[in-house]
Amino acid sequence: MRWIGRCRWVLLSAILLVAPASSLCRSQTAGQGAKSTAANSARPQDAYTLPPAELSKAVSLDRIRDALDFGGSLWNITFLWILLDTGAIAGIEQWTLRVTRRRWLQGLTFFASFLIAVFLAGMPIDWFAQYASRSYGISVQSWTSWLSDEGTSLCLTLLIGVPLLMLFLRIVRRWPRRFWLVAWLVTLPLMAIAVIAEPLVIDPLFNKFEPLEKTDHALVQQLEKVVHRTGINIPPGRMYLMKASAKTNGINAYVTGIGPTKRIVVWDTTADRIPTDQILFIFGHECGHYVLHHIPKGLAISAVCVFFGFWICAAVAVWLLRRRGRRWQIDSLSSPAGFVILLLMLSITGFLFEPAANAVSRHFEHQADIFGQEAIHGIVRNPQKTAVAAFNALGRIWLENPHPNSFVVFWLYNHPSIQQRANFAAHYDPWANGGHGKYFKN
Ligand SMILES: [Zn+2]
Questions:
Q1: Angle value at C-alpha 282, between 256 and 197, nearest 5 degrees
Q2: Separation of 74 CA from ligand 1 center, angstroms?
């Protein structure tokens, strides 16, 4: 998983409603805002602190991130409701019936129009996220490059989203009672394909990648020490450097892909701007995800969640159709317009499932933090200090609020807060008194 940033596990809602990705990379914060100066001043036990000028910036950026995250999800749901309630969805369907008589072409026109509308509705939020990110000195991406990324996202949304929605509509028509079960069975391989294909097909469309060995042989040699200690086989060919500096000042590293495409990616900003010891810790954390099989485990958990999610969506959509169908001019879920009721339910369910998915993610991230600290034991002089310094660098660069609101952490954070991570790292010393770590025998 990403060292920082939104969880990348593929839920079907993400596949279907490929929402424009926020360019304001949310790290693991969100915050309570500067309600009182005292509340934001450092406590003696805090391992993560910011100088006053950066603290006030972090607190105000935190508010913006919260508003964008909650606002973005709620706006997406509201927009779908408006489309249904104003009769716009029924109107688009009527229009496609007039345009062509071929059923597949009607579906194609309908879903392309629908996805473009959803994409355009999300664009102001995306624009503001990018504007805020630039204002706070995190993003350095030009507006031209940002617009080009938005265009690429829209093309991907159409290329992947339209055939998928047509496939799922077909399933609803063919199995009007048990469609949610068939849809779930079809979703399982799609989720695996998405995780395999992402590093090969999607990621290179937005960023440049190079084998890490080609650009930083000395760093690879250091990383090999951690690889050797973990006892796993990550050949240098699976380590990549991402040219993030063209778009951001942020630092990051992550594990992505599965099976033949599994790899570790380090942003060039990370490699250039923090000391090697700290990079080794971040790398050790990523190795933790690799060794502890967090991607396949995440996929398995997602599969269970999607099963119940689809079941609930189908049941509530049938009820909603009975209650509102006449007003929305929709008489069946198996029409393209009726299918949008299912998509609305999917958006709502996805939003409500977020705290559960993030709780699992935070657990995995905590395990990876422990693994990372143990992985560099004996390689760096002081694992505790190194980890705390890495968290401070991470927090300062991303302007993380040292004291985020606990409700926001519960709902939105896919990592524990930087403060929690730094505090844990500062006191984690299993080797004291001759002990050993959780994942390593020495
Ligand atoms: Zn992680």
A1: 5
A2: 27
